[in-house]
Design a protein that fits this description.
Elements: E1 12-16, H1 36-45, E2 50-54, H2 65-77, E3 81-86, H3 100-116, E4 121-126, H4 135-152, E5 157-162, H5 166-173, E6 181-186, H6 187-193, H7 197-203, E7 208-213, E8 215-216, E9 223-224, H8 231-239, E10 248-251, H9 260-275
Helix pairs in contact: 3-4, 7-8
Length: 277
């Protein structure tokens, strides 16, 4: 059973871990340590074929050998795969301030993980609380970004999720050091910030490796369920065929604390009304 009317066979349809669980404490996006197995089963039931595995802190179960074997077993049982690994912990420990030992530790763990399982894409955030604000922070951020790219890009595509302006992002991509670097586009965040989504889709079409599906009100408003009319999703559909290196469409959609199943069903329905036709 799938709630999707039609899916593009060449890409992964994924959801961000945590969309099928209640929030963790006061966090709406945090690794659901008690319910991740249930999320894989629900994801498959709803028609997803993969999951964005989020690393919220250094104690993620995927880093433990015994837990990893269990994760691998559950993925196989549910006929699911990992489409991407998101280094969400960087939101609270930005690349410009992360301690070197922590950076080396997480790199070592992911390198070990890459030997055990296919990870098509890894996302590194440079946005909001972890976006650089001055020249010193920029230098440190880009140096650490290059370190991660150099270490991890042999077996996974490395993408940044960012709210940097167009010119700043263009400068990074024009730097030969970052020739392998890709981009994750969150269409809800583009709407919230007022940035020109079409401009980014056209100019960075070969760099875009992933899409986050989400709806937010303008002027950095709240995340809400997908509406019937969603301009940014229509713009994405218009240009999607030109995104030759796209690997996944990932739902980071609104979910309430108690009605997350019906929320996801409604979000997929609204997505299909625009994108699935």
């Amino acid at each position: 059973m799938s709630f999707f009317l039609r899916k593009i066979k060449t890409i992964n349809y994924s959801f961000v871990m945590g969309r099928f669980s209640k929030k963790i404490g006061d966090h709406f996006q945090y690794f659901p340590i008690e319910t991740w197995q249930d999320e894989l089963k629900l994801g498959k039931k709803f028609g997803f074929d993969s999951v964005e595995w989020i690393i919220s802190d250094y104690s993620n179960p995927i880093f433990n050998t015994k837990n990893f074997l269990n994760i691998q077993k559950e993925l196989k049982t549910c006929d699911m795969k990992i489409s991407s690994v998101a280094l969400d912990f960087i939101m609270n420990e930005p690349l410009y301030s992360i301690k070197l030992n922590n950076l080396k530790w997480i790199t070592k763990k992911i390198l070990q993980l890459q030997k055990k399982i296919n990870i098509p894409r890894i996302t590194i955030p440079i946005e909001e609380s972890c976006r650089y604000k001055n020249k010193k922070q920029k230098t440190k951020t880009l140096n650490n970004l290059y370190f991660l790219l150099n270490q991890l890009s042999n077996k996974s595509n490395i993408s940044i999720e960012t709210d940097l302006n167009f010119g700043e992002l263009l400068t990074i991509f024009n730097n030969k050091k970052f020739s392998k670097l890709g981009l994750l586009i969150d269409i809800g965040n583009f709407r919230a910030s007022g940035k020109n989504l079409e401009k980014f889709l056209i100019n960075f079409k070969d760099k875009i490796h992933g899409i986050h599906i989400k709806y937010r009100d303008k002027n950095y408003g709240k995340t809400k369920k997908l509406p019937r009319k969603f301009e940014e999703l229509s713009i994405l559909k218009k240009h999607f065929k030109n995104l030759q290196n796209i690997q996944d469409i990932t739902f980071q959609t609104f979910r309430s604390n108690n009605n997350f199943l019906s929320d996801m069903k409604e979000n997929i329905k609204k997505f299909d009304e625009i994108f699935g036709k």
